[in-house]
Amino acid sequence: MKDFSIHKSSDSLDVESKAMLDKAKEMIPHAYAPYSHFRVSAVVMLEDGTLVTGTNQENAAYPSGICAERLAVFTANHQYPNKKIKKIVIIAQRTGETELAPAASCGGCRQVLLEAENRQGKAFEIIMHTHHNEWVVAPSAASLLPFGFTKQNLH
Questions:
Q1: Pick from 79, 147, 62, 74: which is nearest to 113 by CA?
Q2: Contacts of 142-146 spanning 24+ positions with Cβ under 8 A
Q3: For the structural domain made of 5-149, what CATH number should be given?
């Protein structure tokens, strides 16, 4: 995983990321996941330190729900259109469990993260929990989606 940093524990994350992780844990009960039982929470930090949260919101009429990452990024872009995203933390937890589950963003969310980077003209860090109970810090959405679809594909 070139350019990715791996942390064996959340304790080794930087102070900002740990604060974001705490906020994500605080918000995870707000996830609505009666079908998958897989609650996801995402916290976006803007360049001025503002935190914007999102949790997954499912719907019986799939795919009408929305992922936590998309909700957080779309809300940040809507509420703070002139502020850039600095980083995002993504966590997951299975209903009824206390331990965190692995939380890699789905392809649709990776595309939304890439669009947000392109929109602001600047990459941002993406912090996710892995299958090995480690934390991956990706330097950009482009690193997670190297052949992403961008506006250049439309021209």
A1: 74
A2: 142/114, 142/117, 143/3, 143/4, 144/105, 144/110, 144/113, 144/114, 145/107, 145/110, 145/111, 145/113, 145/114
A3: 3.40.140.10
Which of 16, 26, 58, 69 is catalytic? The answer is: 69
User: What is the reported pLDDT for 39?
Assistant: 97
Largest Cα span, the chain: 48
Q: Tell me the per-residue pLDDT of 12-51, one tens digit each, with 9 for 90 and over.
A: 999 999 999 999 999 999 999 999 999 999 999 999 999 9
Whether 69 is a known active-site residue: answer yes
C-alpha span between 153 and 135 (Å, rounded): 32
- pTM for this predicted structure: 0.93
Burial class (CB in 10 A: 0-12, 13-18, 19+), 68: buried
Residues across the chain: 155
